[in-house]
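Sanity check

After download, print the first record. It should look like this:
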Amino acid sequence: MTTDSDTPWLTDQEQRAWRTHLDVSRLLMHQLERDLQPFGLTNNDYEILVNLSEAEDHRLRMSDLATGTLQSKSRLSHQITRMENAGLVRRESCESDRRGLYAVLTDEGWDTMRRVAPHHVASVRKHFIDLFTTGDLEALRASLTPVAQHLREQRGGL
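Expected structure tokens:
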């Protein structure tokens, strides 16, 4: 590898922290995805169901849902089509903006969310939360908050 003397390379400590973060992120998301498979859901499906279940009237504009789930509008559209075919969501036109569309949680989607949520929470507890003390969790939150704020600012405050 050619090195540029002006590049502030990571120290050994920084490299270990960065690689541990990457390892944990990949492994945790893989495990959570595996734990959703028996329900026929992906992490993306579950995230959409959560967003819609927490929204007023269980509906969100597609553009807001894309922003909230960090997906392109095109990718979200394909995802919603797949979830529509499974009966979990439906699209509705926006009366105030003919070009706008809403994603709406169906009764089947709501029932699925209520059935799967306890299992997902148990998975998050088993593979993440319960591995920390209360103090560790607070320190982790405090440590990651500036990173989340910085990245939101990079996206325009989202």
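If your output differs, re-run the checksum step. Summary of this record's structure: Helices lie at 12-36, 43-54, 62-68, 73-85, 107-127, 134-154.
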